[in-house]
Amino acid sequence: MSIELAFRLDRGDFSLDLSLALPGAGVSAVFGPSGCGKTTLLRIMAGLERSAVGHLRVGGRTWQDVNQFVPPHRRAVGYVFQEPSLFPHRSVEGNLRYGLRRSQGNGDNSRLEQSIELLGIRHLLARRPHQLSGGEQQRVAIARALAMEPALLLLDEPLAGLDEARRHEILPYLERLHRELVLPMIYVSHSREEVARLADHLVVMDNGRVQAEGSLTDVFARLDLAIAGQPGAETVIEGVVDDYDPRDGVVRVNSDAGPLHAVLGQLETGQPVRLQVQARDVSVALTAPQDSSILNVMPARIEDLAEQGAGHVMLRLRVGDAVLLARVSRRSARELSLQSGLEVHAQVKSVALLG
Ligand SMILES: Nc1ncnc2c1ncn2[C@@H]1O[C@H](COP(=O)(O)OP(=O)(O)OP(=O)(O)O)[C@@H](O)[C@H]1O
């Protein structure tokens, strides 16, 4: 873990008290209800909350402890907000070059060029911000943050101000940053979909405290957290495309849960994919079903189960080296006497491709 921090901050009504160890690359998402302190956490990391007491180390460098406080402009932080906040009187290129001037790097253009490429904004360089769509403005803001050669990229709900179509336009660019840059990103979001698509690591906050932290798959599979009770509760499974059958468009993906079959469109063999399995699309049977239309039937063991609302039970299933969530009716749970430790057959009706 190469980002380590522990902080306390008191604001009267609100207090924050947490410690975290986050990976030095990839996306750590911060998830939690409004007002729980997500933005405050990012501001502390950027050095913008002077009253926060604690320490922060990023990649072996100390940015804050009892003896020192590196001021915000000397921290190699890229910060992307919900609003793109570009300079209106500068062209896109002018905005990017401004970012470069503030950079702590060696001042060459290679990172700027890379940022332009990664965000696909070369054709926009001569335009002013008002000549860009909201999504394009946000891509420029992200490129500007990257051009500063940050050691840490903070993204505070970067897609929240955009409509559904624009959000889906930008997500692939964020996925690309994730794939191609070795850069830790802290991503605050209210969107379960964004978190499922982008995050490797997940921090769940509540009322200024860390409620849960760990790999995305582990935290999503915790039945004691409120996120498992949300309607869209799902499991995210990483895999590699193993086969594509052009006769019916079925892709076979090798995953920790074993081979998963799904109609995902044509994909290249060997391509890594991130799959989403909704808890409501997973059911269980005590005996192996015969002649089922369901493409994926796998031996599984119930690891844990929790009542949800009046009529549902959520099961956490161990399937191979993976876990799957399955939401079944309370009646089925009673009639099949479902309980922890029981061996069952998991049936996965539909697997979606994330990204
Ligand atoms: N400048 C400020 N002065 C006083 N209190 C503040 C200030 N900024 C935020 N707060 C309070 O601190 C708490 C944490 O706010 P913060 O913005 O970090 O939450 P958040 O989780 O990012 O919320 P949201 O998801 O709504 O953006 C809230 O109770 C908020 O009202």
Describe the structure.
The structure is a single chain. The protein has helices spanning 38-45, 92-101, 110-119, 134-147, 164-180, 192-198, 216-220, 330-335; strands at 3-10, 15-22, 26-31, 53-58, 61-64, 77-80, 152-156, 184-188, 201-206, 209-215, 234-245, 250-255, 258-263, 272-278, 282-285, 296-308, 312-319, 322-329, 343-348, 352-354. The longest helix has 17 residues, at 164-180. Helix content is 22%, strand content 37%. The mean pLDDT is 92. It is built from eight helices and 20 strands. The radius of gyration is 22 Å and the shape is globular. The chain is an alpha+beta fold. Strands 6-7-8-3-9-10 form a six-stranded mixed sheet, sandwiched between helices. The protein folds into two domains: 3-229, P-loop containing nucleotide triphosphate hydrolases (Rossmann fold); 234-354, Beta Barrel (OB fold (Dihydrolipoamide Acetyltransferase, E2P)). The site of adenosine-5'-triphosphate has 10 residues, from helix 1.
The SS-based structural class is alpha+beta
The CATH topology assignment of the largest domain is Rossmann fold
Shape: globular
Largest sheet: spatial strand order = 6-7-8-3-9-10
Strand and helix order: EEEHEEEHHHEHEHEEHEEEEEEEEHEE
Radius of gyration using CA atoms only: 22 Å
Through-space gap between termini: 26 Å
Q: What's the CATH C level of the largest domain?
A: Alpha Beta
CATH superfamily membership of the largest domain, which one? Answer: P-loop containing nucleotide triphosphate hydrolases
Helix content class: 10-25%
Estimate the mean pLDDT confidence.
Answer: 92
Largest sheet: 6 strands, mixed
Tally of separate helices: 8
The strand count comes to: 20
CATH architecture of the largest domain: 3-Layer(aba) Sandwich
Oligomer status: single chain
Query: What small molecules are bound in this structure?
Result: adenosine-5'-triphosphate
Uncertain regions: pLDDT < 50 for 5+ in a row? none
Number of domains: 2
- What proportion strand? 35-45%
Domain Mop: 291-355
InterPro entries: AAA+_ATPase (IPR003593), ABC_transporter-like_ATP-bd (IPR003439), ABC_transporter-like_CS (IPR017871), Mo/tungstate-bd_C_term_dom (IPR008995), ModC_ABC_ATP-bd (IPR011868), Molybdenum_import_ModC (IPR050334), Mop_domain (IPR004606), P-loop_NTPase (IPR027417)
Domain ABC transporter: 1-232
Protein name: Molybdenum ABC transporter ATP-binding protein
